[in-house]
């Protein structure tokens, strides 16, 4: 993989590791913009993703793996990863994922995107929040588009607003819902919506 990125002048390889613990150490010492990891790496990879998300939130984690299951993608994203790409994909998709997460968005390999978002909705039904957070009509529209795995640009086109405005709403949603990324916004918003409905019926 290092050879793949070495061919491009706009990427610098901070290092390579062969275990989950070593990945944590590398991130905490080198502070890379992006960490690309494999679920087959020795050690607790999901645990490492969670620790990196908490201790080095500016480092975006992409999972590049042969573990082709929606469950693996859900677990990785729930742990704190912001990208999930299958090794059987074209090299261009990995570069697309890197470009996407660098802008603050989440990338899910296209063949799993809809299933992963559906899985997140199911997971939300098993969780609860202590208090409902009031979202504006526009914020709810943004969340609705998120749940269809649309990018900021696509959301802007559907809602007929600027991409800059979409980013503004996304930042607001992350703050309101205490979310670190777009996936967590979708998860938290769904839980919040269920709580609002529950409160309204009481």
From TrEMBL:
For biological process, the GO terms are: phosphorelay signal transduction system; regulation of DNA-templated transcription
Ranges for domain HTH luxR-type: 128-193
Q: Which InterPro entries match?
A: CheY-like_superfamily, NreC/VraR/RcsB-like_REC, Sig_transdc_resp-reg_C-effctor, Sig_transdc_resp-reg_receiver, Tscrpt_reg_LuxR_C, WalR-like
GO molecular function per UniProt: DNA binding
> 4-aspartylphosphate: which positions carry it?
38
Question: Residues in domain Response regulatory?
Answer: 1-102
Q: Which Gene3D superfamilies match?
A: 3.40.50.2300
Query: Which Pfam families does the entry link to?
Result: GerE, Response_reg
Keywords in alphabetical order: DNA-binding, Phosphoprotein
Please give the name of this protein: Two component transcriptional regulator, LuxR family
Q: What is the lineage of its organism?
A: Bacteria, Pseudomonadati, Pseudomonadota, Alphaproteobacteria, Hyphomicrobiales
């Amino acid at each position: 993989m290092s050879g793949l990125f070495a061919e491009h002048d706009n990427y610098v390889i901070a290092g390579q590791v062969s275990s989950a613990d070593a990945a944590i150490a590398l991130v905490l010492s080198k502070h890379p913009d992006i960490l690309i990891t494999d679920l087959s790496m020795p050690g607790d990879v999901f645990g490492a993703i969670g620790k990196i998300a908490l201790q080095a939130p500016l480092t975006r984690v992409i999972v590049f793996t042969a573990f082709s299951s929606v469950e693996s993608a859900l677990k990785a994203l729930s742990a704190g990863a912001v990208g999930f790409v299958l090794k059987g994909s074209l090299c261009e998709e990995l570069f697309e994922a890197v470009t996407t997460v660098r802008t603050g968005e989440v990338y899910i390999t296209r063949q799993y995107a809809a299933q992963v978002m559906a899985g997140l909705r199911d997971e939300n039904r098993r969780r609860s929040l202590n208090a409902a957070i009031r979202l504006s009509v526009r914020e709810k529209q943004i969340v609705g588009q998120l749940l269809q795995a649309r990018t900021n640009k696509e959301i802007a086109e559907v809602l007929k607003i600027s991409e800059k405005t979409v980013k503004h709403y996304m930042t607001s949603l992350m703050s309101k819902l205490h979310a670190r990324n777009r996936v967590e916004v979708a998860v938290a918003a769904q839980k919040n919506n269920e709580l609002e409905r529950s409160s309204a019926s009481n």
